[in-house]
């Protein structure tokens, strides 16, 4: 079963509004038709398929046509109008057929207006989801959803290289177009091999701190080419040329790279600490969180500089980072060590695991932290946990930088919330949620909450005999 992570839309009804003028003013007429007929239809029902589902942002998110950017074109000799669609709260999506890229939903969707032979207006919502081949050739290849505005499926088309087109099995016979027998599907086409697709995704609302999971069928395609034509006789293949550039605004998928100051041997790195109760010795641990979008639970965001959090280099996606600062104050000195977990090689949501390694994060920024004074036993229990797990597997979903921080705290019987965030094709602990959990925690006498301050390593014990 192939899978696609994304979001979609679409739309139309075909009744003509009373008094609509069929003149040369295509945009004005289409706008009247949309406002009087299309947008006044019943809203689509929330999709709830599987545990955790709430609403489908593809169907339920607020969006509107951008009439000032409308353009005309001919499809099969039929005059048509394409109008971009804009979401009030845009988001990025990932498709498995699209390679290691994320696509801005606003670059993928548009309304198509046309008139049939009876001079009646129609409207369809087109949703183009490119595959990896399209990113190289710019000839649209991928899957096109043709829906009505309420989110009911009219047809799904799969475009392949060389102009080959497959039609997906229609999974909703209740759309306005299908009810009236205008979908143009041929009834007697032999099918031999069937491939089915599923769409699923996650959408997090910073306003409510809720994560919405949704999924739906993307239909099935066949080895035999079937045909689709709408009521104006615009054939399925013509839709491929109407897609514009769905890759506009695409970015690299969230990627976590290795650290930039690797700790070669964590026992040597920590050997300056001494387990001495009382007598002027004090111990503390600080949890530092670099949130992808400061002050929110977003699991990832876009970096303005192309280098932020544990994603650096040319990666425009910021996934944030979490790390720990161990501090021991003695009567004569202060010893500080910064430790964070990274993968040895880069990982992504579709390739989430790699051997792990510790990094000295004393130059790493953060926007929220929590410091706790603790006894020597708790302090060294956590240091021992770090030492015993050197070289542990890094997994984006189950053992990432945030998980490492939480597990280390648990080894000292310190329990923070373990909030699960979501990203394309994955979920787990994340810096956005941990940062907000720290902001909302009720502090005890041994705790202090801070924003950023310098935290360089200090203390050298190599000359001590």
Strand content: 25-35%
- Span from first to last CA? 63 Å
Q: Give the low-confidence spans.
A: 1-23, 44-54, 169-193, 221-226, 305-314
Shape: elongated
Task: Report the average pLDDT across residues.
Answer: 77
Sheet with most strands: 8 strands, antiparallel
Fraction of residues in helices?
10-25%
Radius of gyration of CA atoms, rounded to a whole number? 28 Å
Task: Tell me how many strands there are.
Answer: 25
Number of helices: 8
Query: Pairing-aware structural class of the strands and helices?
Result: alpha+beta
| Number of self-contained structural domains | 2
Describe this entry's structure for a reader.
The protein is of the alpha+beta class. The protein starts with a strand and ends in a 15-residue tail after the last strand. The N terminus is likely disordered. The strands form 5 sheets. Strands 2, 3, 4, 7, 8, 9, 10 and 11 form an 8-stranded antiparallel beta sheet that branches. The chain has 2 domains: 251 residues, no CATH class; 185 residues, no CATH class. It has 8 helices and 25 strands. The chain is elongated.
Topology:
Elements: E1 2-5, H1 26-38, H2 57-60, E2 63-65, E3 71-75, E4 78-87, E5 92-95, E6 101-104, E7 109-115, E8 121-130, H3 132-137, E9 142-147, E10 153-159, E11 165-167, H4 176-179, E12 194-205, E13 210-222, E14 251-252, H5 266-269, E15 282-290, E16 301-302, E17 317-318, E18 321-329, E19 334-343, E20 353-359, E21 368-374, H6 376-388, E22 393-395, H7 401-411, E23 421-423, E24 426-428, H8 431-440, E25 447-450
Parallel strand pairs: 1-12
Antiparallel strand pairs: 1-5, 2-4, 3-4, 4-7, 5-6, 6-14, 7-8, 8-9, 9-10, 10-11, 12-13, 15-18, 15-21, 16-17, 18-19, 19-20, 20-22, 21-25, 23-24
Helix pairs in contact: 6-7
